[in-house]
Amino acid sequence: MVMASLEQAANLYPIPPGLAIDYGTAGFRAEASTLPSTVFRTGVLAALRSRQTGAVTGLVITASHNPEGDNGIKVADPNGGMLLRDWEAAATALANAPTSEALAEAVQQLAVREGIPAQAPSGTVLLARDTRPSGPALAHAATQGIAAVGATVEDRGVLTTPQLHWMVRATNRAEAATEQDYFRTLAAGFRELLLLAGAGRPPLAPLLVDGANGVGAAKVERLGALLADTGLAFRVRNSGQPGEGRLNAGCGADFVQKEQAPPAGVTLDELRAGRGASLDGDADRVVFYHCDEEGGFKLLDGDKIAVLAAGFVNEQLQALGDEGRRWRVGVVQTAYANGAATDYLRNGLQLEVARTATGVKYLHEVAVQFDVGIYFEANGHGTVLLSAALLEWLHQQSKLEGAPERHTAVRRLLALAGTVNQAVGDALSGLLLVEAVLASRRWSTADWDALYTDLPSRQLKVTVHDRSVITTSHAETRAVTPAGLQDAIDACVAGVSQGRAFVRPSGTENVVRVYAEAAMREQAASLANEVARIVHRLAGGLGTSP
Ligand code: G16
């Protein structure tokens, strides 16, 4: 590595005065104009990670669910997952190094710590971006950072985050890894699942898809075109075309899940005729909804998707008898998981449920410890992972003669692994997963929704002077600081039937998040309000108290 050329290139991307940025829940995220230096330096980091491992890594310029004026950068590790957590501190150190000399110094320290030989192959980074106007300039900054340490960049243009992660994984497995290959793989799995659903299944109903005015809208159209002959029809709203509105504004998975309301451009009348789904700004989350019997909006969130997937997987393994039972199935959730969902998974389906902090980087790590690891955050971010050992066994079984039900179960599990992105949570594969399972079971959205009844919940955001004053423990369910906060929350929860509440600093926005659930809707709402007021009082709230 030639440090002089790194310093020279870095001089073109000075860090803004007073910048202090942290690698958060899913990479760096901030107002776009403050980001060029951070993105340049993350380009350097991704190149070094590629050089260290001898495999390609990936970068996506996106701020996902954040407003259009924000942007950010996510890093894909060689296995297609999130950046190895050991490297996050290095990413923060590089991003905050005050001068180009300090950056070169930090790069050298990282190379020594990680044993990256000076003579190692130069490295390759796959690059993509979402549709934000600030994307092209930031992608250029990333390219410059990658090139500054002698690595190669392959610019894949505008993609969803999960597409880029999928490509990184496929490239490193020497599999076909273009965007067309991605679509073909998902579509092939879905077709197989539909085929195995049998001749008697009802035709697929059209699905309203809210594209959040982001990258997912055009991609879902392409997927739909490829699957048109199956009867699957996506009716896309909030596509980002002129006149459709701004990215994530009043639409998208984050809005719909937090507000428990339909997105802009979708009416309850339309939902009476069928279900809808919302993607987020980079299409790694999806939530569903429909109109319930009382004519009200009803959300089917990531918990509901996890339960649907878990039940389906469970049924296939049970069809394999004793041999099926030796494979461990686990569901991973966060503190946001509705209490009723956890209860249904544990007591209804008799499955292992693990709990982690928020962020798919934590859930994924636990999910890979199972033979089938199912993880969905309540916000719709997740996937279903099948272990290499299980897949190998299934491939062997698929070649053997056997009872038809057994053979179907084997083929279904194999098809699932193609339909569902094995690298990371993916809204498009989530859509196909849900549609395929509902078709296989001949279920309506109402049948799916009736598996269990959500406890009413409410989420709020509180803006504080410095959100890092709040620290948590026990997978974010207990506040450690500031002093007195947890006691005050406990006192509020104590009187509430089936009450539960927690607070945590967001890792993607400059806010503190408040979650509350309770037996009754009004109780959940007033518990959330009370806790938000406590946060405002004890953690330096800005503006008027909620
Ligand atoms: C990211 C992470 C998710 C996480 C979400 C919210 O999603 O990938 O795992 O749930 O942030 O995080 P926080 O509550 O810390 O703001 P996305 O879709 O925004 O990239």
Automatic annotation (TrEMBL):
<feature type="binding site">
    <location>
        <position position="513"/>
    </location>
    <ligand>
        <name>substrate</name>
    </ligand>
</feature>
<protein>
    <recommendedName>
        <fullName>Phosphoacetylglucosamine mutase</fullName>
        <ecNumber>5.4.2.3</ecNumber>
    </recommendedName>
</protein>
<feature type="binding site">
    <location>
        <position position="280"/>
    </location>
    <ligand>
        <name>Mg(2+)</name>
    </ligand>
</feature>
<keyword id="KW-0597">Phosphoprotein</keyword>
<comment type="function">
    <text>Interconverts GlcNAc-6-P and GlcNAc-1-P.</text>
</comment>
<dbReference type="InterPro" id="IPR016055">
    <property type="entry name" value="A-D-PHexomutase_a/b/a-I/II/III"/>
</dbReference>
<feature type="domain" description="Alpha-D-phosphohexomutase alpha/beta/alpha">
    <location>
        <begin position="50"/>
        <end position="96"/>
    </location>
</feature>
<dbReference type="InterPro" id="IPR016657">
    <property type="entry name" value="PAGM"/>
</dbReference>
<dbReference type="Pfam" id="PF21405">
    <property type="entry name" value="AMG1_II"/>
</dbReference>
<dbReference type="InterPro" id="IPR049022">
    <property type="entry name" value="AMG1_III"/>
</dbReference>
<feature type="domain" description="Alpha-D-phosphohexomutase alpha/beta/alpha">
    <location>
        <begin position="103"/>
        <end position="172"/>
    </location>
</feature>
<dbReference type="GO" id="GO:0006048">
    <property type="term" value="P:UDP-N-acetylglucosamine biosynthetic process"/>
</dbReference>
<dbReference type="InterPro" id="IPR005843">
    <property type="entry name" value="A-D-PHexomutase_C"/>
</dbReference>
<keyword id="KW-0460">Magnesium</keyword>
<feature type="domain" description="Phosphoacetylglucosamine mutase AMG1">
    <location>
        <begin position="301"/>
        <end position="443"/>
    </location>
</feature>
<keyword id="KW-0479">Metal-binding</keyword>
<dbReference type="GO" id="GO:0005975">
    <property type="term" value="P:carbohydrate metabolic process"/>
</dbReference>
<dbReference type="GO" id="GO:0004610">
    <property type="term" value="F:phosphoacetylglucosamine mutase activity"/>
</dbReference>
<keyword id="KW-0413">Isomerase</keyword>
<feature type="domain" description="Phosphoacetylglucosamine mutase AMG1">
    <location>
        <begin position="174"/>
        <end position="287"/>
    </location>
</feature>
<feature type="domain" description="Alpha-D-phosphohexomutase C-terminal">
    <location>
        <begin position="498"/>
        <end position="533"/>
    </location>
</feature>
<feature type="binding site">
    <location>
        <position position="282"/>
    </location>
    <ligand>
        <name>Mg(2+)</name>
    </ligand>
</feature>
<feature type="binding site">
    <location>
        <begin position="377"/>
        <end position="379"/>
    </location>
    <ligand>
        <name>substrate</name>
    </ligand>
</feature>
<dbReference type="InterPro" id="IPR005844">
    <property type="entry name" value="A-D-PHexomutase_a/b/a-I"/>
</dbReference>
<dbReference type="InterPro" id="IPR016066">
    <property type="entry name" value="A-D-PHexomutase_CS"/>
</dbReference>
<feature type="active site" description="Phosphoserine intermediate">
    <location>
        <position position="64"/>
    </location>
</feature>
<feature type="binding site" description="via phosphate group">
    <location>
        <position position="64"/>
    </location>
    <ligand>
        <name>Mg(2+)</name>
    </ligand>
</feature>
<comment type="pathway">
    <text>Nucleotide-sugar biosynthesis; UDP-N-acetyl-alpha-D-glucosamine biosynthesis; N-acetyl-alpha-D-glucosamine 1-phosphate from alpha-D-glucosamine 6-phosphate (route I): step 2/2.</text>
</comment>
<dbReference type="GO" id="GO:0000287">
    <property type="term" value="F:magnesium ion binding"/>
</dbReference>
<dbReference type="Pfam" id="PF02878">
    <property type="entry name" value="PGM_PMM_I"/>
</dbReference>
<dbReference type="InterPro" id="IPR049023">
    <property type="entry name" value="AMG1_II"/>
</dbReference>
<feature type="binding site">
    <location>
        <position position="284"/>
    </location>
    <ligand>
        <name>Mg(2+)</name>
    </ligand>
</feature>
<dbReference type="Pfam" id="PF00408">
    <property type="entry name" value="PGM_PMM_IV"/>
</dbReference>
<feature type="binding site">
    <location>
        <begin position="504"/>
        <end position="508"/>
    </location>
    <ligand>
        <name>substrate</name>
    </ligand>
</feature>
<dbReference type="Pfam" id="PF21404">
    <property type="entry name" value="AMG1_III"/>
</dbReference>
<dbReference type="InterPro" id="IPR036900">
    <property type="entry name" value="A-D-PHexomutase_C_sf"/>
</dbReference>
<comment type="similarity">
    <text>Belongs to the phosphohexose mutase family.</text>
</comment>
